[in-house]
Each structure stands twice: as structure tokens, then as C-alpha cells.
Amino acid sequence: MTLAATVDTFFHSNVTTFKRVAIAGAQISADGRDYLLEDGCIFENDFNLVGTRDEFVDHAARIDHLNQGVGTHRTVMTDPEWRTFYDVGQRNFFHVTTAHPGGTQVPMASAPCSGCGLCLPLEQLEIDHLHPQDGSAVPPILKVFRSLGLTVGGPKGPLGTAVRANHLAGGNNATGGAGNPKLAKGRLAVLMRGPRYVGPHAPFAKQSRLDRHTTSEAGNALLSVFWRVNAMPALENACRNSLVNLRPLCGVCNRHKSNTPRVFG
């Protein structure tokens, strides 16, 4: 069942109240409060409207759309918006053989490594999870939620920003054809810098960073729905393998990057 179908089914159930689950500072927890479900709408316990069935189904459908699938994440290379963002295109490569020691030009679909900038044919590039498949599921969930406008603070990166702008505008494409915001050479070194998990709490020196790692009330409600129906594993898999969490790396960069789970990004 898709996440959208899961959310839709929940709204047609007999549930009237359910536990509020939230992420604050990259920590997920229940605070003892409840949400109310009535007439296809979710309310806080003081009857403030949080959102409607259509809004939450739409959010879930967008998560489904961005999900590249478990074990099949290389299919992201066929996604038009991902190809635009990572500058996939036909380029000429020299094929050197004993018969042609000077090399012959061969056009091939290719893209730059998002770490070092080396341009390689797609078949020689590896797809890396920005947030590793092992470790906490909270960072990749937050990364996807940020791109859907479900966190207090919005995304800082160009891909997440483009995905969020398109989603909030009701678009159908991942990034809405938002130009060609290619990832700069050497970006990997920037992304891999910064604090790691050193215990149960992540350091947040800036309010803006804390806001980007805290779900909004609508984000809390959607998270609470998945929690209530035991669909968190499906949400986690969808976010780990989301378009916004996948990038092309050459073999050298992929081998030398750290797989240590990170809070930020």
C-alpha cells in the first residue's frame, strides 16, 4: 500500500483521537497530547485546525512520488528532474583501443560527480545516500519533510528548495523544472563537515538550524498518522530512498566518504 493510500484509509477509519508525535531538534517523541480527527480534519486538542484529509494525502503522495524504491535507487538516474539538477547530458568520451590508440569519440549519457566534479558516464557513477541507510531514520525523514514545507524552517540546499517550491505550488514534478541548479564541484567536502551524533542529543547552536530540524504542526500530524497505523518503517524507507537523499558520486569519492549517521543536511 502506498503512503497516500495509508493516510487516506486512516481518515476513513473509526479513529477519533490519536497520540501527537513530534520531532524537535532531530529527536522524535510523544508529548502526551492528542490530536482529534473529525469530519476529515485533524485538530489540536484545543480545536485549532491542523489540516484536512486532502492536504495530508497530498503530502503523502508527494513522498511516494519522490521515493525511488528500496534496492532500486539507481532508477533515480531516469528521473527528469534529478537529471536536470545533476547536469546529466550527452558528452563525448574518448575510447582508446590498440586499433585506435589515439582514441575515438563516443557520445555517452554522463554527469559530474557531486564530490570532486569528475564527469563520468552514468554507468560508472554510483548512487550515494546523503543520509546513510544505516543509522537513525530521523535525518532522512526531516530532509524530505523540509522539502514539503513540513518543518518550522525550510531547506537551505537548491534541490530541497526547488522541491518545496513546486510542492507548495501544487506542481507534479519533483522540482517543477526549476532551472538547472547544478551541484558545485567539491560540494561533498562541505556536506560531510560538521557535528556527528555523539549521544542522544544533537547540538543546535543556531535557532535556524533547530527550526530546520523541527517539524511544523502539520508535519507533526502527518508523522502522528504514520505512527498511529504502524507505518513508520514504510515512511523511513521512502525517505531514505527519496530523490532528495540520492546523489551521484564517483567510486573514489563514495569509498572515501563517511557512512557515519549525521543529523544535518
Question: How many strands appear in the DSSP assignment?
Answer: 9
Strand percentage, roughly? 15-25%
Radius of gyration using CA atoms only = 20 Å
Order of helices and strands: HEEEEHHEEEEHHHHHHEH
Number of self-contained structural domains = 1
3D shape: elongated
Count the helices. How many? 10
Name its key features.
265 residues; alpha+beta; four-stranded antiparallel sheet; three-stranded antiparallel sheet
Question: How are the secondary structure elements laid out?
Answer:
Blueprint: H1 3-11, E1 17-24, E2 27-38, E3 41-44, E4 49-52, H2 53-66, H3 80-85, E5 89-95, E6 104-112, E7 119-121, E8 126-129, H4 138-147, H5 158-168, H6 187-191, H7 207-212, H8 217-228, H9 232-240, E9 246-249, H10 251-256
Antiparallel strand pairs: 1-2, 2-3, 3-4, 5-6, 6-7, 8-9
Quick structural overview:
The protein has 265 residues and is of the alpha+beta class. It is 33% helix and 21% strand. It has one domain (3-82, 125-256).
Can you describe this structure?
The chain is built from ten helices and nine strands. By secondary structure, the chain is α+β, with helices and mostly antiparallel strands. It has one domain. The chain has a four-stranded antiparallel sheet with strand order 1-2-3-4. A three-stranded antiparallel sheet has the order 5-6-7, with no helix packed on it. It has a two-stranded antiparallel sheet with strand order 8-9. Strand 5 and strand 6 form a beta hairpin. The longest helix is centred in the first third of the chain and has 14 residues. About 11% of the residues have low confidence.
